[in-house]
Amino acid sequence: MPEYGEPVIETNQLTKVYSGFMRPEVLAVDRLDLTVGRGEVFGLLGPNGSGKTTTTKLLLGLIFPTSGSATVLGKPAGDIEVKNKLGFLPEESYLYRFLNAEETLDFCGRIFGIPRPERKKRIDELIELVGLQGARKRALRGYSKGMSRRIGLAQALVNDPELIFLDEPTSGLDPIGRREVKQLIGRLKDLGKTVMLCTHLLPDVQDVCDRIAILHNGRLVEEGSLDELLMVKNQTQLTIDNLTESEQKRLVELLAEMGHDHPDIVHPYDTLSSLFMRIIESERQRDRAKNQEEVDAAAS
Amino acid sequence: MPPQADKQHPTGHLDVVRSVRRFLTPSGWRRVAELALLTTREAVRSRVLVGAVALMVLLGLGSLLWPQASDAGRVIVVQRLCYGGLTFFGLIVAAFVGGSALHRDIVTKRIYTLATKPLSRLEIVLGKTAGLILLLALFLFFGGLITYGVTHIANMRKTFEGGSYELEVIAPTARLEPDDPTVEEERLILRQGQMLEAIGKTEDKYKARIAGRHTELAGTIPKDVVRLHERTLAPERVVGGRELGARAQGRARWGVGELTLAVGELARNETWHFDLPEEQDRTDEETIRTRITVGHLRHEPLRGVDRTQHQPPRIEFNFYNPGEEDPARVSKVVDFVFSEQESRRDPDEWPAYDYYYGIVALPRRLATDGVLAAEVVNVRPHYRALGRIFVRRGKEPRWRAGPVSPRALPEEQATFRTRFHVQARTGLDLLDYAAVTAIIRNPATGEQVERPMRLRNLTVSYVRFPSHLIDPEQGVDFVLTDIPGDAQIGYQADEPPIYLILEPDQFAASTIRSVALIFFQLSIFATIAVAASTILSAPVAILFTLVVAMAGGIKDLLLEEMGRRAVPAAAALQQMTPTERAWHWIEYLYQQILIWAAPGFSQFSSAEFINRQWTVPWSVLATAVLIALGYSVVFFAFGYLFLSARELE
Does residue A19 belong to any structural domain of this protein? Predict the structure, then answer.
């Protein structure tokens, strides 16, 4: 039995068949039973066309189920009042091109009825959070894809939502942006928010999710906590810093005495992402130091 | 095999009651307002407004260069071009912005930004529509300013000097023979039963047209008037009695003014003479049944009234015995019946007029010495009684017509009063008034009095004529002076027999109301376009809006065409085969549905008022508001239903 808190998303035999005039029927979601608990970061995984986005749209009330039902925060999916507590970052950020970042967030804040002082404060916080301070007055039509994702993320958080749907949140972002988004998801989790993450970028999921569900052709094929699913229960991994060759030999002998022959002893590899981040971070520090030197020189 | 749809689960979000309730809260209004502002802001920043206003500037300036037939026509041409431009460019903006409003959001998935926020679909449709209407209001505001400015420039280019206008009303004088038209120097004498509308005047030229026929004549006043007089005068219409003269004197600022002279209309205290020899032996309690024919009863339906529905005129008479000192009046309301046989309609002469007749029973005691007096008290709205009243008894018609006011000369100390109707006035400040001085002069003795008056916009004022100033032979001169340059004054004696606009206004009120009419019309197009964009692709929605707009423009033509195809007589129907009959009824029903369903936008045109340089009446504006609301609500409901049922994939 999976362990999760108070359910905020529940689907019961949720099914969606796309059909229409001169259009072949497509079964996008097939009798999906899913539960997401409060405070979880839940990953909805699957290859392209597996039904992740359709499920999200069903939960948001953008499209209507063919059969089955879904509840979000205790209300039927699509309930208007519930939308006060939701945040949604679509797969691509579809925003008003002639507005700038501030105006976009202000409009969203007004729709949620956030009072003006609070709204202003929140806009400043969010723009800083997504790193758009330098482009806050620029019309969105001049934004790069990464910047559009950032403002999209900001608008999804403007109402301090309880439940946040993030559809491919890191798509289009550079590694730094991806790390920041993942850090942000971690912070949201710390604040007790529930996050539903739809992505096919598995490293992102592994870094931030508590539980995942894997969809294939609209069907739920696996569900559970990440630890539970990823743990190889019949193997144990030791990670030791600076192990010498002699110590390594003694350890092999000791393990052989215990009946564990031929253990794999290797140096672990870093991920490319970590390497990239380390290098960029080091370059940034050097730039900062250089700038400081120039400032000091100019001052003296 | 996909699972069957669960009947228990809704397949859409059509929850009208909840959506409406939610919208009717302060936060609902606020959300709609925010979305409306967003829609407007997007359109403004995409330079839609600037483009449309720039086109209006070009049109306005171009209209000043339009070749004009006269100074009087310049303002009219400029105004009509500008209002046409406002309507056309507004329609284009409404169709293109509205037609793509929701469809583009759905296709680009920008709708997700709205639909995942606490905005119901009703609020989305309403917000988009309101935003577009706000955009159109902005366009009309700037376009209206351009129109006003250009009209003002056109008006300033007139070549006339300002000055007062003089109107002379001649009291009952001599009876003229039917074939004795009298024309004096600079004086126009018209017979009873005639009507002359004159538009435009310069120092030496006078443009005139026959009422309802728009035939313009040009030349000097006496010459043209003679020609007009001869042309319209028919012996049977000149019934003797007294006449009304009007004199238009020079130095009038007459840029687009309009002079309508109608002579012999129904005036108070109209009298008829009866021969009553055969009635001598009857008692006073008996009644005389007499037939009254009212000539030149002009049908002026308010716009929006179905032309195919004929509403008979109703006129109320007060009959009394003029021989009594304090005559008691007997009121009779007569519903006149149009009669083809009785019609004296002559398309060449009086195209705008029909004849009606009614029969009224009168107490015999009212008539003594062969004289019966009657006054017209009330005429049903939509009709103007401008002609004569004929009373006849039995088979032999006895045409009698009485004089027009002022004709009854009361006692020495009594006064006679008439009234003035201020037609319109310039300026945005509707609380201003025009200070006017009325000079009443006895033409025989030269004695005169001055009556200063303050005339407010759209008010009726009265002035009393001391009876000693009214000369029995020459009547009374009545002159309005000190008329401010921005005043526009009409003179009404009972039903408007003489209608003189002394000065065109500065077009502010006229512009505001005409633009308001266009705004209401464009609001309909905006609603149609947004509603269409909820279900149709942008090009189709735009096309749909344009087609509806064009169809609405020709509804009147459609009605006239349909009206000719009446249901055939029963005999003709019986001669048809069952198939033909069925086909006929199907065609008839189809026509009726078309007539009923096709939108009509002629009510939103201010052209007829511009042509006369009149301000659009409030009643027309009120009608336009109601029509716009009706259409908008219907199309908005469709839009809401379509979007509610639509999946935002």
Answer: yes
Complex prediction ipTM: 0.83
Last residue of a domain, one of A212, A230, A248: A230
Number of domains, chain A: 2
The average pLDDT across B352-381 equals: 53
The one-character DSSP state at A220 is E
**Beta-carbon separation of A65 and B112 below 8 A:** no
A127 and A146, same structural domain? yes
Residues 6+ apart with CB under 8 A from B274: B288, B290, B367, B370, B371, B372, B391, B393, B398
pTM above 0.80, yes or no: no
C-alpha–C-alpha distance, residues A106 and A123, integer Å? 7
For residue B191, give the DSSP letter: -
Question: Each residue of A112-131: pLDDT tens digit?
Answer: 999 999 999 999 999 998 88
Q: Is the same domain home to A103 and A193?
A: yes
Cβ-contact B248, B177 below 8 angstroms: no
At B548, give phi and psi (nearest 5°).
-60, -40
**Is residue A225 less than 8 Å (CB to CB) from chain B?**
no
- Which residue from A172, A193, A162, A208 is spatially nearest to A39, judged by alpha carbons? A193
Distance, in Å, from the CA atom of B5 to the CA atom of A259, rounded to the nearest integer, reads 60
Listed in sequence order, the residues at least 6 apart from B109 whose beta carbon sits closer than 8 Å to its beta carbon are A90, A92, A94, B648
User: Is A103 part of any domain?
Assistant: yes
Within this chain, do residues A25 and A128 fall inside the same structural domain, yes or no? yes
Residue A112 lies in a domain: yes
B514, B606 Cβ separation under 8 angstroms: yes
**Chain A residues in contact with B109 (beta carbon < 8 A):** 90, 92, 94
Is residue A203 in some structural domain?
A: yes
- CA gap B545, B108 in Å, rounded: 22
Residue A100 shares a structural domain with residue A225: yes
- Report the CATH number at residue A26: 3.40.50.300
Residue A88 Cα, gap to closest chain B Cα (Å): 7
For residue A83, which residues of chain B lie inside 8 Å, CB to CB? 116-118
Q: How confident is the model at residue B164 (pLDDT cuts 50, 70, 90)?
A: very low
Which three-class secondary structure string do you get for B449-489? EEEEEEEECCCEEEEEEEHHHCECCCEEEEEEECCCCCEEE
Residue B49: enclosing H or E segment and its boundaries? helix B48-64
Could you tell me if A176 and A48 lie in one domain? yes
pLDDT at B606 over 50: yes
Shared domain for A159 and A287, answered yes or no, is no
CB contact under 8 A, B41 and A25: no
